[in-house]
Amino acid sequence: MAVSAARRMVAGSPGPFDVAATAGLIPAISTDGSTYPIEKLDAHRRAVKHLAISVFVFSDDELLLQRRADGKYHCGGLWANTCCTHPHWNESVAASAVRRLREEMGLTLDLQPTAIIEYEARVSNDLWENERVHLFQARVDRRTTRPALNPEEVSHARWTSLASIRQDIVADPDAYAPWFKIYMSRWSELGF
After folding, report:
1. Which residue is catalytic, options 91, 104, 129, 131?
2. pTM score, whole prediction
3. At what angle do helices 178-185 and 162-171 cross, to 10 degrees?
């Protein structure tokens, strides 16, 4: 069977599917550790454990932060790590990290996996994150790395030292996404 770029087989499914039609489906995690497809907003409304990725791009001792676009479905206008997303159903976490870094920040970098952590956080009045997050990092020279921000996803970006981030979170915690504050509080677990 020929497989085009627009169609491929889902393991265990009866036939091919349209990748675009499954973009709203993400991998949820059963109690036995297996995954199953769930609609992204449903996972967040019901706090269902699901897979996610977070990317951290460093230049020396500085981290590239993004300010989420105001129109995002949750946490719009808040500062976070370089990028985050959920893998599409049947997409690897590594491919998801590369895809989302390119989509949000306009960067194609050599990403290295660092750790897997789990957390839960309320991200709006009716949405929760309950995630098993695969973390990735890249080390770059900020003088030659030029993000090209997607304005539908990201309103601003800045390079900031970890010390400055910690100070700013204490001074203005409401300016940061809940998961990023968790990452900063659990920094020693992240493998950077």
Report:
1. 131
2. 0.87
3. 120
Catalytic residue among 75, 84, 104, 129: 84
Domain boundaries, the chain: 19-189
Q: Determine how β-strand 25-29 pairs with β-strand 79-80.
A: unpaired
Cα(152)–Cα(103) distance, integer angstroms: 10
What's the CA gap between 29 and 85, in Å, rounded?
16
Q: By the 8 A CB rule, do 69 and 151 touch?
A: yes
Q: What is the pLDDT of residue 75?
A: 84
Annotation says 131 is catalytic: yes
Taking residues 31-54, report their average pLDDT. 95
Residue with tokens 């890249």: 138
Quick one: CATH architecture of 19-189?
Alpha-Beta Complex (3.90)
Confidence of residue 82 (pLDDT cuts 50, 70, 90): very high
N-term to C-term CA, the chain: 43
Active site residue 84: yes
pLDDT at 68 over 60: yes
Q: pLDDT at residue 25 above 80?
A: yes
